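ok so for the tutorial part 2 we go from a plain amino acid sequence to predicted structure tokens. step 1 is just haveing the sequence, like this:
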Amino acid sequence: MRKLAVALTAVAVLLAGGCRTGGDDPATGAGQFTRPIVIGLVGARSGAFAVHDTEQIAGMRRAIEEINAVGGIDGRPVELITADHGSDPTRVGAAARDVLNRGADVVVTSADSELGAPAALAARRENKVSVGGSDAPQFALRGLGPLHFNLYQGGPTESVVLAQTAYGQRARKPYLLVEADNPAATALCAEFETAWERLAGEGSVAGRGTFTDLRRSLAGQVDRIRAADRADALVLCADPGAGVDAIRQVRAARVKLPVYTGSGVDGVSWSTVLPGLTNIYHPALVATADDDPRPGVADLLATVPFTGSARYALYGYLAVQTVARGVAQAGTATGPELARALESFQDEPLLVGPTSYSAVCHAPIGRPLTVLRVVGGRAVHFRTVPPADVPPTAC
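step 2 — the prediction. this is what the tokens look like for a chain of 395 residues:
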């Protein structure tokens, strides 16, 4: 816990030291910082997504406890309120209005574009900042407007980092296998190919294949992978369930190529699904095998509950940390002023790494991304990769 405590002391100087660039919050009266800063989570306490938002709440509470323990932000405590959308996109708007009507200064969304977007749009209508994590490119300024900020680097950054990782591992002719009826998967592979050709040159992809229904065998695709000219890596773009099943079939067919895939498989219990599995690479927000190199990450993960991937607990912690830093700089939680403070972040030292936003990009696309490697059925830290030349589609 010592590393996290040291980091917390540094944060305390920023939050309690009055380093404000804006004016007094009009909701409190001139110079009177007595009203809490209210953060409203529009999340799931029931339904399929509840397990993830429960973890996000745990991360938020941990960050709030730390901030309030050192006096809050300019003397103002931070308070969390929640509203349940039941994992139903049609109920998100009403849940967002609930937290806004109860005084939320900032809205935190579910870490899912379908469940998060309606909450962000509701916050925007009330001139409030919203934050949330998603790999969807539209989950930032371009898709949700000037008051929403993505906590995650985004799918395009994943594609670039996967290309850099595969190239660094001396792959030169990857074969791309895509879940064809999945737009996010299609985008992941398309962006990978663009990034790959910048590294290896045009025409350096060994081949491309698609699948739509894993109830059928992938035998045909496996034959094409084997027949592809000098294929030395497999890039798999699919949702987590389809991706795991595809990896199972590929390995069962004795195709031993290294597999590079998206962050959706983060948290899969490979030792249960495919004991002994090796040479799978994927990005993640952090490493969870007690081997993340960033100070404080392991300490935090030892204190918040999570199952599989730690991303949701981390999104919660990161949401509060991001908002707190922004309010400390702006001197207010008022939407436009807070948004300008967040846009001023340049390598802001957050728990998961140096984070930057700007007036034209509301996703931290340049923040280094963790890559995990599955070895013997266990996902371990492989390297932390600074992305190069990420397209602005994630902004």
